[in-house]
Structure formats: structure tokens, C-alpha cells
Amino acid sequence: MNHSGTVDYALEGDVAVIALNRPAKRNAINEDLIAGIESAVARAGREARVGVIHGRGDHFCAGLDLAEHAERTPFEGVLHSRKWHRIFDEIERGAIPYVVALHGAVVGGGLELAASAQIRVADETAFFGLPEGQRGIFVGGGGSVRVARLMSAARMADMMLTGRTLSAAKAESVNLVQYVVAPGRALAEAKTLAARIARNAPMSNFAVVQALPRIQEMSHDGGLFTESLMAAMTQTSPEAVERLRAFLEKRADRLDKPRDS
Predict the structure, then answer these.
(1) First to last CA, the chain
(2) Which residues are catalytic?
(3) Where are the domains of the chain?
(4) What is the pLDDT of residues 36-48, one digit of tens each?
(5) pTM greater than the 0.85 cutoff
(6) I need a surface site. Which of 94, 166, 232, 252 has the fewest CB within 10 A?
(7) Is the dihedral of CA 141, 142, 144, 149 positive or negative?
(8) Domain at 7-198: CATH code
(9) What architecture is the 202-248 domain classified under in CATH?
(10) Residue pLDDT, tens place only, 142-181
């Protein structure tokens, strides 16, 4: 699938690979690109077990395409923002988990897009910024919720107020990304992780995507009760029963060795 040349889609086994394809514009998000993301994510939810999102060219995504930023009434602005929210929500809390591969600029709306994925892999060229304060605007793609919860509202305020950018190493230290790899290796690592995730029971992956973030927003007791419900649902599925039996009969891999990279 190719949405007017701005988003490419490929199914590699059980993994849907979605590429932002506006390299001449640093993959800045315009109306066509956000529509392409929406279409690709909907398709991935129907036919893949895991999604990978990356950007072509030298950068992941430089955020909102200000050259095409139209003057809007306040109501039109709310509707535009809510469209981004709906699309990014489908990545964060849709049918399948997502791994995002980051390099170069991960700025503004690009960081908001990255924050909607479950796992973020950055190569050492990646840098992270929220320049909305310098542009006279405010984040509108979910950053005040997702980015702030990842690294804290205080760190996000610092970036927005001062224009500070973070390196990949610093982003890892403040919980914006989970993996940092050598230049040019982010996509390969993201695909490796996605292939590993795709081998999980779909119900388990769905529980992680759907239940885990919601539990973080619940009270202590509500979270524990929801955890019990999800544990009961996943462990009694036919696939879970077979996998547990294989483990007990030593037909499955054991986690005896560290697999951290």
C-alpha cells in the first residue's frame, strides 16, 4: 500500500512494516501522511501480529509540516488535534503492539507518534525535541499525556520552554526509549524485536497493549483486580495451555540466560 507516496506498507511474515516516506521534508506530517498512517495502522490490525514504524531518509519525523499548517478556528483546531489523537490511540491501544525505529530528528509530532508505540528503538543519530514553545503553539498529538508520562511533566516542560534537545543516550536515561543501537541499525533491531513479539500468544500481546496502560491509571485495588481478570483470561486460552504444557515438558525455551542487548 502507498498513500499518495507518503506512507509505504509491507507485510513481512507476521510483521507489518510501515514507512513514513517524505524524506525531502524530513517526514514532516501533513494531511496526506497522517491519513496514510491511519490506513496503514488499520490494515496492520487486520493482518499482522506486530507493527513496525520507521522513517525513510535521514530522519524519522520532524513533526508537523508547518509549511502546510493552515489557519484554523479554535473549533477546527480541536478537531484536527483529535484526529491525531484517534490515529495515535490506535497504535497505543489497538489490536497489536508496535515497535518504532528512530533515527535523526524525532521532533514535535514525530516524538508524539513515537510515544504512541509500545517499544522505541533509537540509533545514535537520533535527537529528540519539542519546539512548540518556540513556535508559539502547544503540542496537539497526545504529547502532553504520552511523552509526559514517559519521562515526567517536568522534563517535558523543560524541553518545551527552553528548546532543549536530547540525544539518544539521554533519551534512554529518561525513559523515552528502551533501546539504543549503532547508527543505521534501528530498523533491523526493531524488526528483530517485532519478530520475537510475534511469536507470543496473541492474547498475551493484546493484554499487554490493552490492560497494562489502563492499569497504570487505576487505583491500587482496581489495578490488581483488573490484573487478576486478565491473568485468568490469558492463562486459560488453548494456546496458553499448550505453551505451559510444553514448558513443563521441557519442549520450550527457558529464560536461563540474559537476552538484554
Answers:
(1) 33
(2) 112, 132
(3) 7-198, 202-248
(4) 999 999 999 999 9
(5) yes
(6) 232
(7) negative
(8) 3.90.226.10
(9) Orthogonal Bundle (1.10)
(10) 999 999 999 999 999 999 999 999 999 999 999 999 999 9
